[in-house]
């Protein structure tokens, strides 16, 4: 935070924290946390979560959890048009969640790495609680 903004934020915190020593400690901690946020990384991470927020894209990722599939197989599994599935695959590919392999005129898709599976596993654990 710049100095002026920091002073304004300290004044705002004073309304909640009356102990001067605690105010200083908490202000320094908050300032450190805010300064540690990488806006570019946050934007990239946000794009990943937005991509997974669509139920059809989440279905595709879960299907690919079991292994590589052809675009035509994904189209049949989702009961959607080829253009709709192509759009969803493009979104997932653009954010780095899936990879594409071409073989002749066929396109095969797979998850980009194990971190995607781990993300799905963590989401499942959160829903079970």
In short:
By secondary structure, this protein is mainly alpha-helical.
What does this structure look like?
There is one protein chain. The chain has 2 domains: 3-35, no CATH class; 42-128, Winged helix-like DNA-binding domain superfamily/Winged helix DNA-binding domain (Arc Repressor Mutant, subunit A, Orthogonal Bundle), CATH 1.10.10.10. It has 7 helices and 3 strands. It has helices at residues 3-14, 20-35, 39-52, 55-64, 71-78, 82-94, 114-128; strands at residues 69-70, 98-103, 106-111. Strand 2 and strand 3 form a beta hairpin. It is elongated, with a radius of gyration of 22 Å. It starts with a helix and ends with a helix.
Cα distance spanning the termini? 37 Å
Rg on CA atoms, Å: 22 Å
CATH class of the largest domain: Mainly Alpha
Widest beta sheet: strand line-up: 1-3-2
How many beta-strand segments? 3
Q: Helical residue percent?
A: 55-70%
Strand content: 5-15%
General form = elongated
CATH homologous superfamily grouping of the largest domain: Winged helix-like DNA-binding domain superfamily/Winged helix DNA-binding domain
* SS field, number of helical segments: 7
